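Quick one: C-alpha cells for this chain, please?
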Amino acid sequence: MSRDDEDRILHGLYYYRENIDEDVQVSGEQLLWLAMHPLREGEAWHRDGKLQSLDTSAFPEEVRGKLITAKLELPLRYLQYRRLITYARRSDGMFYAAVTFAGADRAIRLHTRRGRMDLWYREHRDGVLGMSITVLISLITALLTVIVTTKLLKP
C-alpha cells in the first residue's frame, strides 16, 4: 500500500461525478482499476458510459486475497480515517463511497502538477529535504531582491 494508491482512488472517485458527499456505487474491481492506473487515467475511469474495472481472475488465487487487501481495503480504510471519503461495504461486495469536502480539495490539487507539488511539499516540509528546499528558495529570493535593488538604486 502506498499513498499513491490512495490518491489515485480519491482522484478517480471525485472526478467520476465531481460531487461532494454523494454516494457512488462501485465494485471492488472498479476501485482496483483506479488504484492501479496513473492519475491522468483516473478521469477516463468511465469510458463509453461504463466504469472500467480490473479482471481479478487473471491473478492467481493466492495473490488475489493479498491484492485486494493491499490495493483496496487498506487504502479505503486510510482514506476514511483521514476523513477524505466515507465508504460502506455491502454484503454482495459492492461499495458505497462518497468524497468529503477535504477529499475533494485534495483531489482537485492532485489534478494538476502544481497541486501535486504543493501537496508533496506540505507533507515533507518538516523533513530534511523540505527544510532544505525552504532554505534554498529563501536564499534565491534574497539574492534576487538584492540584485534588483542594487540595479534600481544605481545612479
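The beta strands are 24-26, 46-47, 50-51, 85-89, 95-99.
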